[in-house]
């Protein structure tokens, strides 16, 4: 029985450590590595190997230290408006198009001249891109809401929403009623639901009213 437990612990810990190496999110990597290290420490204790136990306890402490830094770090957010033909914007789209289309297959990479393009910045680094254009009366169509792989923790999306909450509430008095966006894969659709969109028909179309946006984000603006 004890050998069976050791077998499960050893292989489970090894699998978690290997999985952590493939995580693009630093936070996910640290959490998975922490759990794997704790299991490995238990394996070392049961196996009677104090060096293995001690090494993984130290590794767990290191992961806890960096997780604490990640959770308490104050990021500096900002936005940058760019024209649809901006050179860096085109390079960004080219570099991330394959990843973008994995989440939102209907995005072709072509940006119409009339589009409104916003980069989300985090500590002066580009971490996201939002592209919109005017739709029907009272509608803004969101062509893309994308975050680079390392920064998919919702903070950047929340900042952009909060940043524009005041101006959007003012736009409501001029006829703006809602934002629409077509869905993508299941992960992307979960993201849309999380930030406030609702699925409105069977054609994978999502909508967020101005009232929903302002009620969710306007009170969070400092």
Summed up:
This protein is 53% helix and 20% strand. The protein is built from seven helices and seven strands, in the order H-H-H-E-H-E-E-E-H-E-H-E-E-H.
CATH class of the largest domain: Alpha Beta
Number of continuous helical runs = 7
Q: Extract low-pLDDT stretches.
A: none
Helix content: 40-55%
Major pleated sheet: 7 strands, mixed
How are strands sequenced across the largest beta sheet? 1-2-3-4-5-7-6
Strand content: 15-25%
| Radius of gyration (Å) | 22 Å
CATH homologous superfamily (4th level) name of the largest domain? Gcn5-related N-acetyltransferase (GNAT)
Under the CATH scheme, which architecture of the largest domain would be assigned? 3-Layer(aba) Sandwich
Nearest-integer average pLDDT = 87
What string, H for helix and E for strand, traces the elements in order? HHHEHEEEHEHEEH
Overall 3D shape:
elongated
What is the domain tally?
2
- Structural class designation: alpha+beta
Distance between the termini: 58 Å
Looking at CATH, which topology of the largest domain would you report?
Aminopeptidase
Number of strands: 7
How would you characterize the overall build of this protein?
This protein is of the alpha+beta class and about 220 residues long. The chain has two domains: about 1-70; about 75-220, 3-Layer(aba) Sandwich (Aminopeptidase). Helices cover about 55% and strands about 20% of the residues. It contains seven helices and seven strands, in the order H-H-H-E-H-E-E-E-H-E-H-E-E-H. It has a seven-stranded mixed sheet with strand order 1-2-3-4-5-7-6. Strand 2 and strand 3 (about 125-135) form a beta hairpin. The protein is elongated, with a radius of gyration of 22 Å. The chain starts with a helix and ends in a 5-residue tail after the last helix. The mean pLDDT is about 85.
């Amino acid at each position: 029985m004890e050998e069976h437990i050791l077998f499960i612990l050893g292989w489970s810990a090894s699998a978690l450590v290997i999985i952590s190496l493939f995580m693009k999110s630093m936070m996910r990597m640290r959490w998975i590595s922490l759990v794997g290290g704790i299991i490995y420490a238990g394996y070392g204790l049961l196996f009677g190997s104090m060096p293995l136990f001690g090494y993984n306890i130290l590794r767990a402490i290191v992961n806890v230290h960096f997780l604490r830094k990640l959770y308490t770090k104050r990021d500096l957010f900002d936005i940058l408006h760019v024209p649809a033909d901006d050179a860096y914007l085109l390079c960004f789209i080219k570099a991330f198009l394959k990843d973008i289309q994995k989440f939102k297959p209907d995005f072709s990479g072509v940006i119409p001249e009339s589009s409104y393009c916003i980069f989300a910045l985090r500590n002066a680094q580009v971490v996201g891109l939002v592209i919109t254009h005017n739709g029907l009366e009272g509608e803004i169509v969101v062509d893309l809401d994308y975050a680079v792989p390392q920064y998919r923790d919702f903070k950047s999306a929340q900042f952009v929403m909060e940043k524009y909450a005041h101006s959007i509430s003012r736009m409501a008095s001029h006829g703006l009623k809602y934002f629409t966006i077509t869905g993508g894969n299941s992960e992307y659709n979960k993201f849309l639901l999380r930030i406030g969109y609702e699925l409105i028909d069977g054609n994978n179309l999502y909508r967020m009213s101005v009232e929903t946006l302002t009620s969710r984000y306007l009170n969070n603006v400092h």
